[in-house]
Amino acid sequence: MYAGRFKRARPPPYDMSHDCSFLSDLGLDGDVSFDEAARGSHAADWVAQEAGMGVTPDAVAWPKSTADVSAVLSAANEREIPVTPYAAGTSMEGNAVSLFEGISMDMTKMDAVLDVRPDDFQMDVEPGVMGNVVDERAAEHGMFFPPMPSSANLSTVGGMIVNDASGQKTVKYGEVGDWVLELEVVLADGTVLEAGSKAVKTSSGYNLKDLVVGSEGTLGVVTRATLELEGRPEQIKGGRAVFESMDDAAEAVCDAVRSGVDTAKIELIDPLAAEMANDYFDTGLPEGSMIFFEFHANHGIDEE
Prior knowledge:
304 residues; alpha+beta; Uridine Diphospho-n-acetylenolpyruvylglucosamine Reductase, domain 2; Uridine Diphospho-n-acetylenolpyruvylglucosamine Reductase, domain 3; 3 domains; five-stranded antiparallel sheet; four-stranded mixed sheet; globular
């Protein structure tokens, strides 16, 4: 993927490129690149790439520590150079794409699971760790991260947090932000702060953690997160129901929610989506309105 492939979505009226050579003098543990290929690969997210649009940054930095992130942000802030956090690049909303060149800060080299505390149902992770890695480490202790989106093998936990991602299990477990206890965040001037608390019951101070969750990198860069885990259900069963119309399918979803049935996943598929899935992935779905559902329980799942 090269920079020449991309066009500006909204060309600025003047050149917005910046001299980012100072990055080479910061003594970072991580890497820095001014290479055209590296810059081009950070010019767009999935949607911008498919549309042939994007904005090529002047440089790409891959920090390996909170100190690296702080050094880059502090130096860039002094020079009034914009920095755009970048994770797996799988966003579909343009939040990983810089508006005015500057520095793309790729967080994927900060990808460690720092600690798992089964007795506390907690896990400390760096922002670049992939969702499926979190699932695997939690499963070793009979636990899981309940709000994990279905894109777990494509997206990072940091990206999920700053987008407050939701997924198929949101109907039961809520969004990713509901399961984040504490964040370490680096602000634009390089200041490092902790938001939230590892204590599940706490009401002291400003709720800065929830301010950072969903902020899409505009308020700071997340460098560490404490996630809350839950015991893996003893019984998991799923199925599919096909309906004559979308109205019938939608009403069935409402009935399921109103009835109090403990549904963990529920997803409505319209005929067009089913047709596209069959065309692109040969899924063999019936081309009609349908619901996919899943139940989690430790007892009585057959009755539900």
